[in-house]
Amino acid sequence: MSSVDYCITTMDRWHALERLLFSIAAHRPDAAVHIADQSARFDPDRYDRLVERLLQAGLCTHPTVHRLPFDCGVATARNYLVDSTGGDYKLILDDDFLFTADTDINAMVELLDGHPNAGAVGGAVCRHSKVRNFGTSFERDGATLRQVASDAPLKEYRGVQFVQTDCVPLFVLMRMELFAHLRWDPALKTGGQHLDFFLRMQRTPYDVLYAPEVRVDHPPIEAEPSYTKLRFRPTFLRRMMVKHGLIRLEAISGTVFELLPDGGLIAYCMLKPSGSRYRYASDAPTNPDRSTRSSPFAEEPRPCRRA
Question: What angle do CA 154, 156, 159 make, to 5 degrees?
Answer without folding.
Answer: 135
